[in-house]
Each structure stands twice: as C-alpha cells, then as structure tokens.
Write a structure and sequence with these properties.
It holds the Pfam family ABC_tran. With about 575 residues, the chain is α/β, with parallel strands linked by helices. Helices cover about 65% and strands about 10% of the residues. It is built from 20 helices and ten strands.
Length: about 575
C-alpha cells in the first residue's frame, strides 16, 4: 500500500482510530470483569457472604449502564472513523483517476473504474477499515481473557490455549486462497459492471438490431460468473468458520474435562469454573473473529493494491516542461503511426501556422481523427516528430498542451448539470464574456425555449439533440479562449445554415489557430479556410486553398463532386 492511500485511511484519522479502539477495548474489558463478578457471586453465595454479595450487586449496577454508554460511544466513534476513512479513500481514488494522462486512463474500461469506486470500496470499508478496528478490539479481548484465565488457574488456561492453536493454524493455510478468491470476485464485479454499462449506453443499438435475446444470454452468463466467484469466496469463508466453530466446541470440552478433574482435586472452585465458562466467550469468540477478520483483511488488501496500480499508472512528467502560449506553428515531420502493424498515418509532413484555419478532409478511415489526437499527445509510440513553437511534443507537459488547445469532439459529452455549468465547466467567468459566447454559438433561442441557463441537461445531455449538444460544446471551447481550436466534425449534427453561420463566426476570430475535420464539402464553408488538407490512406494527398484544389481537379475535386452528387441524389429522393 502506498503512502497516500495509507495516509487517507489512518494518518488523517489517527485520533478517531485510536479513540475508537480504546473505547471498544474498554467495553470489551467489561465482559472480562463480568466473568470475575460472576465467579465471586457464586463463591460468595456458596459461602453465604451477604455483605460481599450486596457490594457486588452495587458494582454491577454501576458497570452495566456505564458499559452501555461506553459501548454506544465506541460504536459512534467507530462509525465516524469509518465514514471519514472511506471518504478519504474514495477521494484519493477519484484524484488518482482524474490525474491519469489520457493514455494511462484508456488502459482500463470505464466499468473498471466504476467497479473500483463501488464494489471494491464497499469491500474495503467493511473488511479493511472496519476490520482493522475489530481486529484490535478482539485481540485486546483475547489477551485480557487469556491473562485472566492464567490468574484464576494456569493449568486450565494452558490447556485452553493449546487447543486454540488449531483454528490459528487453519487460518494461515487458507489466507492465500482467500486473497485469490477475493481478487476473482473483484474481477467478475468489474466485468459485470462494464457489461451492464454497455447495455445501458447501447440500448438504442440493442433495440434497433433486435438483439435483446442475445444480450440477455450474455448478461446471464456474466452474472453467473460473478455469483460463482462470490460463492467460491463465501464457501472458503464458511469452511474456515466451520473449522473454528469445531475448535470452539473442543475448547468447551477441555474446560469441562480438565475443570472437573481440578474441581475433584480441590484445585479450583465452582465459581472459578463458571468464570472460565464466561471467559470462554472472551477467548473463542475473539479467535473466531480474528481468524475471519485477518483473512478478510488480507483479501481486501489485495484490492487496495489495485488502487496502487491506478496511482502508479500516471506517466512521470517531471522531465516535461510548460510552454508559453502558442504563437508560431505546429510542425509535423515524418509523422507515422501504426496500430497492430497497420499504418494509420504515413510520413506526414506539414506546418500549421499560428492564426490560420485548416480543414482536414478525406474519406472514412483516412486517418483524420487520429491526426488530431496525435497533435494533442493522445497517442505515443509514433515515428517522426511533432513540435509546438519548436518544442518537441514529448517534452511538453500534458497540462501545458491542454492550456493551449481546446478540442471539440464529434460526440460531445454533456454533464448531468445545468446548461450554464456545461458551458462554464464549473469555473467562473465574466457575465459579458458568457453572453458573447452564447450569442456566437447560437444558443440564445435554445436557452429561451428551455426556460433559462439553469435547466438541467440530464445524463450526457439526454434532453438535448445532437446539434444542441454540439453548440454547447462549441460554446465551452470558445469561452476558454485557447489559441488552438481542434474540431472533429464539430458541426456534423447541425443544419447547413447553422453550420455555415458558426463556421463564418469562427473564421472571423482573430489570434486563433483552427484545425477542423469536416465532411461538409460546401464551398461557402471550405472557402473560408486558409488551407485544406486532403488525407488518403494516412497520407497527405494534396493541400491548398479551396479554389486551388478545385482548379487542380485531382483528389479533392473528385471528393467534392462525389459529395455534391450524393447531396443532389438525397434531395431528389426526399
């Protein structure tokens, strides 16, 4: 366990942890005291010692309510400690996830992160955080109970202690198997949560292709694996508990056999035997709970190791530098990129100059989106060089890149919050700036129709159309005022006139470098770009202004004519 996770559980809550253990320990000592009181009651009753019986009754009358108050206080502080430790652990894990660079983040599915924050946290809360306090309490009770037994009668105490070694040996045998079983449960939880997330996210696809039956069968198989893993874990736990229960019975037998013999010899009183029987709960119960507690704690510790992996997955950027605001050019030199030995980009050489606008066009699969992601450092393992104002991309910190770049994705993500917060992204800004952005992204009518900027958007903007979400996404990018604006089909869901108006507005913006992927071969849109880049099979086939490329009558001209034909054909069909 790394220091930050350990600190989130213990160091930040050390006072609560100590008081929780102390109060619970004091309360557990009450049970030991009651055993002694029981012994004295019996022995005094046999001897008809009325004065001592009255004194013991008075002491019991004080101890019992005091113990009840102490027990409640112990539980209350334990619950507060558990709450704070769990909250700190959750916050630490969320912080780890948010600080992951994009490459590290995408090494795991969203379902994995959800499972870590839900299923795994619950297990750790019950078996590790609460379990640690419980182990301290039970260990104290065990030690206190054994010491008191030795004080009463060392021979009987030693006999009981030797018998108690059996369950401890059983526990050590099953520790590793329990850890593996717990890890398998976590893995199956992750798999099931990921699949359910896919079903919910892809519900339209499921309905459209009428594959409910197939999806249901897969869901049943996933659920079966999940519950089977849980059953294996529970069976192991039940086996350990069964063996410890048997050992508890053996301890009781030892008390009666050895105790009876000692009583017959006059080495022990009836009251002392009854005290041993009472103290049996202070020995066997702690042993049983310690065995299951230690086993569960070790198993849950394996889940904490998964948290460590997330924390350690962040790429070390200490050697990377921050760059000033972009002001010159982005240069691609000999840029090539492959996935599974398939060339996605092949020997790209190009310069994106500050203040200019560029349209990237090409057929599906030509490498357009990959090129944009390469510019932001989304992928590594490429050949060639990418530089910002002469500084190699690999030497620039991710934070510095995204301070200079705003990326408008085709699939715009909308938070389950208000329109205002989805544009501001939870940051403050001047009201005049905000109003200007609303106007430029043509959101005013939408806001008026929906009842204001405080209207909730729903999960991933479920209450909005694709075009409306794209305008919100454009507004948030404009509000950032980054010197570089990357757009991946950012107006694809808009009608032609709205798209033209927004493109016209963007083309009039000063001191911004705009690189946009577009499928719109509309002259009124493309002629507003300083340069158009045509990609084919991962290579730049040609580039130039709209009129230069149309006059050249090569690849771009052919693509434009094909697009125009398809558009005319669609209109005729309609």
């Amino acid at each position: 366990m790394n220091k930050k996770i350990s600190k989130s559980i213990y160091k930040k809550n050390i006072i609560l942890f100590v008081f929780s253990c102390l109060l619970a320990t004091v309360t557990s000592m009450l049970f030991i005291a009651l055993a002694i009181i029981l012994q004295k009651f019996i022995d005094y009753s046999i001897n008809k010692d009325i004065n001592n019986i009255v004194a013991l009754t008075t002491i019991s009358g004080i101890l019992l309510p005091s113990g009840a108050v102490g027990m409640y206080a112990g539980y209350a502080i334990k619950n507060l400690y558990t709450k704070r430790a769990t909250l700190n652990l959750k916050n630490t894990l969320v912080e780890y996830i948010l600080r992951l660079d994009m490459r590290s983040f995408n090494n795991e599915s969203n379902g994995t992160y959800i499972s870590r924050l839900s299923n795994d946290i619950t297990v750790i809360q019950n078996d590790y955080i609460k379990g640690t306090v419980e182990i301290v309490v039970q260990l104290t009770m065990l030690v206190g109970g054994v010491l008191m037994m030795f004080i009463i009668n060392s021979i009987l105490a030693l006999s009981i202690l030797l018998t108690c070694i059996i369950p401890l040996a059983v526990s050590s045998v099953f520790n590793n198997r329990m850890q593996k079983a717990q890890c398998e449960v976590a893995e199956q939880n992750k798999s099931y949560v990921s699949f359910i997330k896919d079903i919910l996210s892809g519900n339209q696809v499921v309905k459209s292709f009428n594959i409910e039956k197939e999806i249901f069968e897969r869901a049943k198989a996933k659920a079966n694996k999940q519950e089977k893993a849980k059953m294996v874990y529970e069976n192991l736990l039940s086996l350990i508990m069964s063996l410890t229960d048997i050992s508890t019975f053996l301890v009781a037998v030892v008390i009666f056999v050895v105790g009876t013999r000692l009583l017959m010899k006059g080495d022990i009183t009836v009251g002392e035997i009854m005290a041993f029987i009472q103290l049996l709960n202070c020995v066997t119960v702690p042993i049983n709970r310690l065995i299951t507690g230690f086993t569960k704690r070790q198993a849950s510790r394996a889940l904490l190791m998964n948290f460590n992996k997330i924390g350690e997955a962040k790429i070390d950027q200490s050697h990377r530098v921050d760059i000033p605001e972009f002001s010159n050019s982005i240069i691609l030199e000999g840029l090539s990129f492959s996935v599974d030995e398939k060339k996605i980009l092949n020997d790209i050489n190009f310069e994106f100059e500050y203040g200019k606008s560029y349209a990237i066009v090409g057929t599906s699969g030509s490498g357009k989106t990959t090129l944009l992601k390469m510019i932001t450092g989304f992928y590594d393992g490429y050949e060639g060089n990418i530089s910002y104002d002469g500084v190699d991309l690999g030497k620039i910190s991710d934070q510095s890149i995204f301070q200079n770049v705003s990326f408008i994705h085709q699939d715009c993500f909308i938070f389950d919050d208000t329109i205002e917060q989805n544009i501001k992204l939870f940051r403050e800004c001047e009201s005049d700036e905000f109003e200007q952005v609303i106007k430029k992204s043509m959101l005013q009518k939408l806001i008026n129709d929906r009842g204001g900027i405080d209207v909730l958007c729903g999960e991933n903007g479920i209450h909005f159309s694709g075009g409306e979400k794209q305008r919100i996404s454009i507004a948030r990018a404009l509000l950032r005022k980054s010197p570089i604006l990357l757009m991946d089909e950012a107006t694809s869901a808009l009608d032609n006139q709205t798209a033209r108006d927004i493109e016209c507005m963007l083309s009039e913006m000063q001191n911004i470098t705009r690189i946009a992927i577009t499928h719109r071969m509309d002259e009124s849109i493309l002629s507003g770009y300083d340069e158009i880049v045509l990609l084919r099979n991962g290579k730049i086939e040609e580039h130039g202004t709209y009129h230069e490329l149309m006059e050249a009558k090569k690849g771009f001209y052919a693509l434009s004519m094909l697009s125009s034909y398809n558009s005319d054909f669609s209109m005729e069909v309609e």
